[in-house]
Structures are given as structure tokens and as C-alpha cells.
Amino acid sequence: MPTRFVFAAPRLAAYGLLLALLAAALPAQAQLFGGDDQARRAIIELRERVEANRLTAEQANQALQQQQTELTQRLDEELLGLRRNLVEIGTQNDALRRELAELRGHNERLAHLVAELQRQQRDLQRDWQAQLDQRLRPLEPITVTVEGVEFQTRPEEVQAFDAAMVVLRASDFERAARLFGEVVAQFPRSGYVVPALYWQGNAQYAARQHAAAVETFRRMITVSPRHPRVPDALLGIANAHIAQRDNRAARAALQELIQAHPTTEAAAVARERITRLR
Amino acid sequence: MPVPPLSGLTRRRFHALAALGGSGLALGAWGPAQAQFRVEVTGVGLQQIPFAIAPFRLATGLPQDVPAIVRANLERTGQLRALPGGSAILDESARPDLAPWRAAGVDALITGSVERLADGRFDVRFRLWDVVRAQDLGGLSFPVPASDLRLAAHRLSDYVYERLTGDPGVFATRIAYISRHGERHNLWVADADGENAQTALASAEPIISPAWSPNGQQLAYVSFEARRPVIYTHEVATGRRRLLAGFRGSNSAPAWSPDGRRLLATLTFGGSSQIFAIDAAGGGQPQRITQTSGIETEPAFTPDGRTVYFVSDRGGSPQIYRMTPAGADVARVTFEGNYNISPAVSPDGRWLAYISRIGGAFRVCVMELANGRITPLTDTSADESPSFAPNSRLIMYATQAQGREVLMTTSLDGRIKTRLASAPGGIREPDWGPFQR
């Protein structure tokens, strides 16, 4: 134990003091060798002094020894305590390490869970967006070109008009006329109003509803006098009048067509038809 | 300071320690084949290609039944189904009428011959027919010494398998495994079908963790012959071996880098188990890769060499993590259950096989690395040491069946399993070698 050597040092120092005293006494003895009594007294005195010194040194030594024993005892006790503490710290360290590992594991799982949740959220968001897009699509305006005219419309209008066209193509003229009429009534501000009126007129003509056809074609021309289908509508009016054997009215419609739209294909048909009306 | 216990891992990994005792060590002697395997296929694939092998024109006195080996190989994959090959001999030059074969439901027909050459060697020839399309799918000729007839049969099987399935065959590859019979421990090298086993090392002390080098010429393994685990590298052709890691403490779990230049291994130096890098050529100080107070072990490289999967208990239970080969960017990989060990990455880099404790049973699981999807592949309870076939289509592993230690293979969907039942004593610790070029 290194500590013992530290506490041995004061004892060595005490011996050193004694030796020094002895060394100082020796030359005096030699000098006083001449007179017997004097010398004896001197020797006795010297002995007494040495004895006294010895006793003093011994006492000092004993005190030191006792002090040292006490110190050693205290130190041993403290060491024992420290050792106990160290064991405890070691145990605590193990526990902390285990706890740290558990926390690390917990943290790893949480991080994994967060990543997983983020991924799920991204997926959900993507799915939701896709669903929303799908639902919104019917509500969004779309651009169509019908009878040479481009306009914005909504999917339900397209659907209603196309449904009427399908019926018309199937030669169910009465129903087609009714459906086109519904388009006009249902979507009065739609771009489909003019083409619906045009095809309603045609359907009515085919269904031999001649008066209604004339009325529908006229309405269409009033709504959109510059529509590319106007010449055909005028031709339709003339045809309806002819079917009603009203040649005068038919001729008037044909002349209106020839004058207003002289370069059209319909005008060429009208010129030919006028000659036949005579 | 005491190391926190990782009882399961350590016990299972090193349970061979219990058998310490005896002495003696036979080196590199290519002993006679002792472990004869019997192949059992369980499970059925959804789509099996029906094939037939017509009787070959065979020389007399052949030591190996080449067509039988081919048939067993192809059947063992579970992807092909053998139909009767008829009685008429058809060799590779025959132009068979395919109509009757088609009528019998045969999709692919193999014809061929084994002829004795003037120099005493044998010429194995064959031709593969696509019966459905009436197409000649080609053939090859293997002039080989009698000792390589099995190899020729395997190469023939590889050709047929690749033409029919599109995947390279693994019949000509080799496997390594450990057997223990009483106090005899053997390191074996066998054909992929388990036949033709040769002992590479016999020892009175346990041998564990064999690992093929990327070029298939060396095995690294852990031997207890010095009464403590040390790692050797072992040249298979010559039996020459070298002490790779015999450091203070325990040396275990060697794993080759794909370039074969270095190995990762678990060393303790008397402290906790940590992963170190060791130069394969030997010499130099091991370089420490992991820095934890826990247990870090079982490193496994990805085929591109950029990632290392390993096992750590840093999170309180043994789990699989990944990191760079330098130990950076550590991330946990397994989260299901509290016990996942023995990672193995497929050669195509798509799959991670490992052992997971599921309800008290240790089972081979496979994780698809792209999406983390996990599939348990077995219903056994003591699976160990999964290892991928070089074509990434099968996993070989050790397990216990009817109280015996056996090796099995499974397809990656767990549907088709084959059992390579061994001779007496246990066999375990399989490692499937690379393609032989």
C-alpha cells in the first residue's frame, strides 16, 4: 500500500533528529576528558540528556505511530466505502446501459413507425387526391366543338346532348325532338342551345311536326343569326313549308337564304329548289 | 464490466463449444464421400414445366448414371416435372417425331449419349427439344474424365434449366457444411445436390461458420482446435490453410467482401464482441468497424460491397442492422419480434434471408429489400444459417426434422422445399458457394 510509506516519513524524520543530537554531543565528550569528576558529571549529565532525548523521541514516535494507525484505519474504512460505491456505480452503469439499449431500441422502433406512418400518409394523400380528381372531373368545364363552334361546357350538358344525338341517329325522331327540347330547357345558357335547337328542328321535320320545325328553326336563327348552321336551318324551314304545301312561304325562306348566304352550299340547293317550285 | 447477456445468440452460435475435448486434426485430405444425401421434395409449384428424358445411348461400364442425375436435379427445383421417357433410345443426333411426346403432355425433351473416347475419357452429349414449338433448343458436348461425369451431368442440367426457365442453373455449384458425429467434426464440400461430398477438414474440435470466398476457391471458417475460436482460410483444391485471425479472446463469424480482398469478422480481444475488418492476404492490424458496448456480430456483405448487414443488441434485443463497410450510416432493418439474427443477402441484391424467433420457433424469413415485405418460409422450429443459391432462387438452411439435424432448401416463396437428409450424426452450418466459371 503506497499510503503507508507516506505516513512512515515522519517517523524517519524523528530518528534523524535523534542521530543529529548524538552527533552534536560527541565532540564535547572528547574535549572534557581531562578532569574525572567533571568528566563523570558531564557524562551523567550527558546520559541524562540522552535519556531524556530518547524518552522524548520515543514518546514522539509512539504518538506518531498511534496517529498513523488511526489514519490507516480511517483510510481503510474510506477505501471500503469507496469500493462499495464503485460496485454500486458499476451496477448502476449496467442498469443504465440496459436502459439506454432499451431506449435506443424504443427510439429505433419509433423512428421506424414515424417513417412508416409518413409513407402511409403520403400514400393516403395520393389516393385521396386521385379520388378527389376523379370526383371533380365531372364538375370541371370542358371545351367542345359542335357544329363548327367551339365553346366551354360542362360534362352533364355534353352527356344530355350526346344522348339526344344517339336517339336521333337511331331514327327515333319524336323522342329525339323531345330530348333536344329538354337540353334547351335545362341548359338555357349553354353553348348547346343553338345546336340543340337546330337538331330539334330537324328531328321535328323528320317526325312530320312541320309547324313546330319551322318555329324551332326560327328560334335558332333568332338566338344565333351568324351560326354556321343558319343556312341549313333556312333550308329546313323551306322544306317544312313545302311539306305543308305552302310554296309561297317556302319560296320566301329560300330567297332569304340565297340573299343572306349566297356562297353557301345550302344556297346552291335553294336556287335549284326555287326553280322546281314553279 | 460485465457484457450484457445475449444468451440465445451466443448459445446457439457457439453451442458447439460444449463438445470440446479429444484431440487430433486431419488436414485437407480429400476423403471418400460419406454423407450420402437422399432428396425429398415437398410442396408443389404453381407452374411446373413437364419434361422427359429419353433413354440415352450409353457406353457400358459407366460409373455414373448421367440421365438419372439430370432428372433428379431438374425435379429438385420444383419448377420442372418429369414424365416417362419412353423406351426407345434417342441420342443427340436423332430427329425424334415430337407429335407423340406432345400428345403425352411433354413440353421439353432431352436426348443424348455418353460415349467412351479413345483416350479413356467420356463424351457426354445431349440435345434439348421444345416439343410444343417443335424447336431444337440446342445441345452441348462435354468430354470429361470418369471422375467428372457428375459435373458433366450438372452442366447439362444447368443448360436445360436455363433454357427452360430463363434463370441460370446452380447444379454445377458446390456447398460447404459441417457434420458432427460423436467427437468427430468434419468440414465437407459437396455438389449442390449434396452428393460427391469430400471432407476438407476433420477435427476433434468443433468447426463452425464456413464461408466461401467470392471466387469459390477458399473457405473461411472458425475452428476450435486451439480450444478457442480462431479463423482460418482454407484453399479447397490444395487443402492449404492459413490462420487469419487468432487474436486474444474469440474470433468468429467471417464474411468475405465481394472483391475477396478482405473479411469482416467478430473479434473480442477479451472485451465485447465487435466487428473488425481483416486483410484477406493476412498481416496488418484488424481495423475496428463497430463501436458499441454491446454485441455486434454476423456481418454479411451485399453483392455490390456497399452495404453490410449485421446483428447487434444495441437496441436491447438482437436485431439486424445495416451499415457501410466502414461502419457509417447504421440503420436498423428488422422490427418484427425481438430476435432476428443470421442475415444473408441474395446474390441479386433483392432479398435478405434471416432467422427470426416467431412464437418461440426459430424460422427462416425472407425480406424483400425494396419494400421491406417479410415472408416466413418454414414451419420448422430450429432453423439456422440461411444461405442463398448463386442464382438467388433457393435458400439452403440447417434445421431439425424428426429429431435430426438436416439441411434443406426452400424456394423464396416457401412453396417448394427439398430435404438433404444426411448420414448419421448432425449436419449444419451450410454455405452455398458461388457460380463456378
UniProtKB/TrEMBL annotation, chain A:
Main location class: periplasm
Entry-linked InterPro entries: BamD-like (IPR039565), CpoB (IPR034706), CpoB_C (IPR014162), TPR-like_helical_dom_sf (IPR011990), TPR_rpt (IPR019734)
TPR repeats (start-end): 194-227
Keywords assigned: Cell cycle, Cell division, Coiled coil, Periplasm, Signal, TPR repeat
Single Gene Ontology BP annotation: FtsZ-dependent cytokinesis
Any Gene Ontology CC annotation: outer membrane-bounded periplasmic space
Signal peptide positions on this chain: 1-30
PROSITE patterns membership: TPR (PS50005)
Coiled-coil ranges from the UniProt annotation: 43-127
Cell location: Periplasm
Keyword Signal belongs to the record: yes
NCBIfam families cross-referenced by the UniProt entry: tol_pal_ybgF
HAMAP family (alphabetical): CpoB
Protein function: Mediates coordination of peptidoglycan synthesis and outer membrane constriction during cell division.
Protein name: Cell division coordinator CpoB
Organism: Serpentinimonas maccroryi
Taxonomic lineage of the native organism: Bacteria, Pseudomonadati, Pseudomonadota, Betaproteobacteria, Burkholderiales
